[in-house]
Amino acid sequence: MLHTDAQIEELDAALLALPPESEGMLASQFDGFVTGVLLCPEMIMPSEWLPHVWGDPELAVFESDAAAQRTVAAVKAHYNRVARGLARSRAVYEPLFDENTRTGEVLWEMWVAGFEEAMRLRPDSWLATVESGDPDVEPALPLLLTLHAIQAGESDMPKASIDELTEQAPDLIPELVLTLNRWVKGQRATTGAANLPGAPVRSAKVGRNDPCPCGSGRKFKKCCGQETVH
């Protein structure tokens, strides 16, 4: 098991600590987002992707610096778990999907929305996957984009095809992730350029004079380290 129930609950609570008006990510969307960051053929540093997690930086207000520290730690811990799973010799990936508690339906749409947001950080880099010459890898990205179009209500596919892909998506997504991961690890072996880190993203305590981990560019004490912070 890649994530324990306690770890998922901790991540949920940390992200829910952000005010709704900031439009920060929830757990399933964040899981898709960090997966996209890790699979991107080009390196993306935490200082660049973290601000996307919080949403509007002016509205992402934590109750205290302790709450800010807990949220950053939970976010980075999840990133590291996903990274370790993908970096194994026999990679493991378990997407976080929401579930309709009334019907039992698996809700994969927010995961895909998060993955697509990560892709937008380096859109040109992803073209390498569709030009890879690998018959398994080349269709992976178009399939994920097709799922995103369905999620966004922008697909022009026949309803029967949409319904079929919607049903297949929970099983299809982890397969596509592992296919892309295999290709990315091969590229990393030859070029050294990928986001599957040899060392984890650290979540040690942030000094009050250090740059804020939210990516604002301000010192922690002037940002997420204030009594009422953002």
From TrEMBL:
Pfam families: SEC-C, UPF0149. Gene3D superfamilies: 3.10.450.50, YgfB uncharacterised protein family UPF0149, PF03695 (1.20.120.740). This is UPF0149 family protein. Coiled coil: none annotated. It comes from the Bacteria. NCBIfam families: ygfB_yecA (TIGR02292). PANTHER family: ADENYLATE CYCLASE-ASSOCIATED CAP C-TERMINAL DOMAIN-CONTAINING PROTEIN (PTHR33747:SF1), UPF0225 PROTEIN SCO1677 (PTHR33747).
